Amino acid sequence: MGNVWKWENGRLCARPSLSDSLQIAERTGEVISVVGAGGKTTTIRRLVQKAVKQKQSVAVTTTTKMEIEPQFLLTSDVEKIQRKWEEEGQVWFGIPGPDREKVTGVTEQILDAVCARHPELLLIEADGAKRLPCKVPEAWEPVIYPKSTLVLAVYGLDAVGKTFEEACCRPGLAAELLKKNRTDQISVQDIARLAKSRQGGRKNVNRSMGYQVILNKADTSRERRLAEEICRELEKEGVTEITVTAEGRQEER
Q1: In this structure, are residues 38 and 31 in contact, taking their beta carbons and an 8 Å threshold?
Q2: Helix or strand or coil: residue 12?
Q3: pTM of the complete model beyond 0.90
Q4: Which of the four, 75, 122, 179, 204, has the lowest number of CB atoms within 10 Å?
């Protein structure tokens, strides 16, 4: 599923897996909410793949909406959810949405009940972005489960160089927050400012939760250079837990 790098000592250092870079490979009972844009579901898939390989039980759901995939168990019955992860090592679950193409978020009470059954890893997609690589949340977003131990804010590097209108979910909010125009191009400084902002990537992240940034789609040398620039900008602002990921797309020549 592509390469992974951790930002350390002013450079990108290769890591064997996303779990290793996030330092969750050996921890159990982790509850991770994934927010932002440009690779939330891809990030979740990577973590599921590693957890299953390590024979950890993993549950995946959403507090907002998530596209239905074949592996989804369309129920909020906690007994059935637990049985599935015990039998197969993983379970993706949610409630069918009205358009039949997405599952809708389960309640906090259901998440509490699932946590009480002690899956070794619970992954929650807690934001929507309409397939765009950049996001600024509205007043009701993101929907972060209060018992989350870690929040991952994802940004797609392909947003850089495009306008807010082209590449950002809620472009008006982004322009207002950054004091830009909707037709301005998104810069590396803009991504860094959004990722560190309490109105952006850090929104609804409380002090009991860890916070890490993921810069996704670093599949070309250009995108990796952009990632390095964003990492430097974030480091200036005290954000140092940053992982850069590639999706395995072939680099253009």
Answers
A1: no
A2: strand
A3: yes
A4: 179
d(CA 121, CA 253) in angstroms, rounded, equals 39
SS3 55: coil
pLDDT of residue 24: 87
Neighbours of 167 (CB within 10 A): 22
| Beta carbons within 8 Å of 240's beta carbon, 6+ residues apart | 7, 234
On average, the pLDDT of the chain sits at 94
Q: What is the pLDDT of residues 115-144, one digit of tens each?
A: 999 999 999 999 988 899 999 999 999 999
Joined tokens for residue 4:
């992974």
> How much helix, strand and coil, in percent to the nearest 5, is found in the chain?
30, 25, 40
User: Model confidence over 216-238: pLDDT tens digits?
Assistant: 999 999 999 999 999 999 999 89
**Euclidean distance between CA atoms 146 and 209, whole angstroms:** 9
Query: CA–CA separation, 25 vs 56, rounded Å?
Result: 10
Rounded Cα gap, residues 249 and 247, in angstroms: 6
> Contacts for 21-29 with beta carbons within 8 Å, 24 or more apart?
21/243, 22/150, 22/152, 22/212, 22/243, 24/121, 24/150, 25/50, 25/54, 28/56, 28/120, 28/121, 29/118, 29/120, 29/149
For residue 100, give the 3-state DSSP assignment: coil
How many CA atoms lie less than 13 Å away from 171 in the CB half-sphere? 17
Identify whether 142 is preceded by a cis peptide bond (ω within 30 of 0): yes
- Which tokens in the block code for residue 231? 């990492």
Residue type (1 letter), 129: A
Percentage of residues in the chain with pLDDT exceeding 90? 87
> What pLDDT band is residue 49 in, cutting at 50, 70 and 90?
very high
